[in-house]
Amino acid sequence: MSTQPTKDLETFDNPMPERDYTIRIDMPEFTCLCPKTGQPDFATLHLEYVPDKQCVELKALKLYIWAFRDEGHFHEKVTNMILDDLVKATQPRFMRLTGKFNVRGGLYTEVVAEHRDPSWKAPEYVTLP
């Protein structure tokens, strides 16, 4: 079992591939470096996805997120990079990644990136009384 950061994303077979359901994962300890100053950037990443055949394994996701700690990235770029890697690994029906970055220079940044499989139709939302 690895305890070092890695960009390898492990997956496992979706136990209920016949059903649309949502997996939500919060990652409150994301860090990378500002590419301009080298100072650390801190963020909470919120992942929501509707899996198809594969789900992302949580320990692998933790080690993957850890791998960005010493890399310089703009908020917009790193959010989209992570989404692209997760989509490549899991091929979900739908995936949304939201990066909520802590204050830098008096400004908060929130980046939302999405992927939708073109053949997937979202189920109709049900509002209960």
Description:
It is built from two helices and six strands; from the N terminus they run ββββααββ. Strands 2-3-5-6 form a four-stranded antiparallel β-sheet, covered by helices on one side. A two-stranded antiparallel ribbon has the order 1-4. The chain starts with 10 loop residues before the first strand and ends in a 13-residue tail after the last strand. With 129 residues, it is α+β, with helices and mostly antiparallel strands. The model has no long low-confidence stretch (mean pLDDT 95).
Write the layout of secondary structure elements.
Blueprint: E1 11-13, E2 23-33, E3 40-50, E4 54-56, H1 58-66, H2 75-90, E5 94-104, E6 107-116
Antiparallel strand pairs: 1-4, 2-3, 3-5, 5-6
**Distance separating the two termini:** 47 Å
Radius of gyration, whole Å: 16 Å
Structural class based on helices, strands and sheet pairing: alpha+beta
Succession of helices and strands: EEEEHHEE
Instruction: Tell me the number of helical segments per DSSP (H or I, 4 or more residues long).
Output: 2
Q: Major β-sheet, in short?
A: 4 strands, antiparallel
Q: What fraction of the residues are assigned to beta strands by DSSP?
A: 35-45%
Helical percent range?
Answer: 10-25%
Tell me the overall shape.
globular
Q: What's the count of strands?
A: 6
Name the average pLDDT: 95
**Strand order, largest beta sheet:** 2-3-5-6
Which stretches are poorly predicted, pLDDT < 50 over at least 5 residues?
none
Q: Which descriptors apply to this entry?
A:
129 residues; alpha+beta; four-stranded antiparallel β-sheet; two-stranded antiparallel sheet; 6 strands; globular
